[in-house]
Sequence to fold (261 residues):
Amino acid sequence: MGQNLLVDSAYLEQIIATARIRAEEPIVEIGAGFGVLTEALIREHARVWALELDAGFFRVLKEKFHDHPEVTLVHADALKYDFRELSKNLGRLRVVANLPYNISSRLVFRVYENRDIFSSLCILLQKEVAGRLTAKPRTKEYGVLTVLLGASAVVEALFHIPARAFFPEPEVTSALVMIMFPDPPPVQVKDWKLFTRLVKAAFSSRRKTLRNALRNNRALGATWEDVLAASNAAQVDLGRRAETLSAEDFARFADELYARA
Fold:
């Protein structure tokens, strides 16, 4: 399942201290593995909803936590699980997790799409993925998720964790990342679905200029005439590449497209 389990207690305690768990607070853990982080969370008196897909790990979790009513075990794929239904009972969800590397980017994007039901994520990611989430414009790491989270969230890479802290040891360094979804978001956007389509379309061929990336992109759902008019009104030069635009630039562009929809 692509899981590398954190086994170094010093780093585990550092994560828990950073997360600042409140007593009786509901916490969602994704990829619970052998339950090491789960144990640390319940020591802080959290109520834990622990998701695990792997059948072997799930059997271990059931044995370990069968007499812990504060732990709810969920045998499910986090990429398909109905977090929205869970939030009806718990309110906005807070995630503390060591994410499996092979789903981390897709999961963060799924959270972005459902950001109204999430308050924050305190998650371990591959250092390179963390770098993409916090990248600056005009860098090769800057991309779709950077922009989407830049507009909707406050993202901070907090500290690195070496491979030796995990079992099995990965070939990469990990990073603890905090993602918070404030209300209102950092950047105001009139139509978030349109904003998302625009960002994806702009980065669909990142070596191309915006003019070439957007001209025949049907996924954008806008005529070329509207794209030209919106870019002019937003003062976005279509001769630029997507990686040079800030989240604010994309928001202005998307809002002008929305006005012409």
In short: Strands lie at 5-6, 26-30, 47-52, 71-75, 93-98, 118-126, 154-161, 166-167, 174-180. The chain has two domains: 5-180, 192-259. The first helix runs from residue 9 to 19. The CA atoms of residues 86 and 147 lie 27 Å apart.
